[in-house]
Amino acid sequence: MNMLMYLIPIALLMGGIGLLAFLWSLKNGQYDDLQGAAWRILAEDETDQRKPETSH
Protein backbone atom coordinates (compact mmCIF):
# COMPACT_ATOMS: atom_id res chain seq x y z
CA MET A 1 0.00 0.00 0.00
CA ASN A 2 2.89 2.34 0.71
CA MET A 3 4.20 1.78 -2.79
CA LEU A 4 0.99 3.25 -4.26
CA MET A 5 1.79 6.54 -2.53
CA TYR A 6 4.82 6.78 -4.81
CA LEU A 7 3.52 5.16 -7.98
CA ILE A 8 0.30 7.17 -8.40
CA PRO A 9 1.98 10.62 -8.30
CA ILE A 10 4.75 9.38 -10.62
CA ALA A 11 2.15 8.06 -13.09
CA LEU A 12 0.21 11.34 -12.94
CA LEU A 13 3.41 13.32 -13.48
CA MET A 14 4.41 11.20 -16.48
CA GLY A 15 0.91 11.52 -17.94
CA GLY A 16 1.07 15.30 -17.49
CA ILE A 17 4.44 15.44 -19.24
CA GLY A 18 3.02 13.41 -22.13
CA LEU A 19 0.01 15.71 -22.38
CA LEU A 20 2.23 18.80 -22.38
CA ALA A 21 4.43 17.29 -25.11
CA PHE A 22 1.36 16.55 -27.21
CA LEU A 23 -0.03 20.06 -26.76
CA TRP A 24 3.37 21.54 -27.63
CA SER A 25 3.49 19.50 -30.83
CA LEU A 26 -0.01 20.69 -31.77
CA LYS A 27 0.98 24.31 -31.15
CA ASN A 28 4.09 24.00 -33.31
CA GLY A 29 2.24 22.51 -36.27
CA GLN A 30 3.56 18.95 -36.21
CA TYR A 31 0.22 17.58 -37.41
CA ASP A 32 -0.62 20.20 -40.03
CA ASP A 33 0.40 18.19 -43.11
CA LEU A 34 -0.10 14.48 -42.49
CA GLN A 35 -0.03 13.44 -46.15
CA GLY A 36 2.90 15.61 -47.21
CA ALA A 37 5.63 13.38 -45.82
CA ALA A 38 4.07 10.31 -47.39
CA TRP A 39 4.04 11.95 -50.83
CA ARG A 40 7.51 13.50 -50.47
CA ILE A 41 9.11 10.12 -49.88
CA LEU A 42 7.55 8.77 -53.08
CA ALA A 43 8.33 11.77 -55.28
CA GLU A 44 11.61 11.76 -57.15
CA ASP A 45 13.45 15.01 -56.93
CA GLU A 46 16.41 15.52 -59.24
CA THR A 47 18.08 17.96 -56.88
CA ASP A 48 18.41 15.24 -54.23
CA GLN A 49 20.39 12.89 -56.45
CA ARG A 50 24.11 13.12 -55.87
CA LYS A 51 26.47 13.38 -58.78
CA PRO A 52 28.92 10.48 -59.00
CA GLU A 53 32.38 11.42 -57.88
CA THR A 54 35.07 11.19 -60.52
CA SER A 55 38.55 10.06 -59.63
CA HIS A 56 41.49 11.90 -61.18
Describe it.
The N and C termini lie far apart (75 Å). The radius of gyration is 23 Å and the shape is elongated. It is mainly α and 56 residues long. The model has no long low-confidence stretch (mean pLDDT 85). Helix content is 55%, strand content 0%.
Topology:
Blueprint: H1 4-27, H2 36-42
The SSE order reads HH
Uncertain spans: none
Report the β-strand fraction as a percent range.
under 5%
Largest sheet: none
The chain-level mean pLDDT equals 85
Helix/strand structural class = mainly alpha
Rounded to the nearest angstrom, the radius of gyration is 23 Å
Described by the principal axes of the CA atoms, the overall outline is elongated
Question: What is the number of strand segments?
Answer: 0
The helical percent reads: 55-70%
**Tally of alpha and pi helices:** 2
Cα(first) to Cα(last) distance is 75 Å
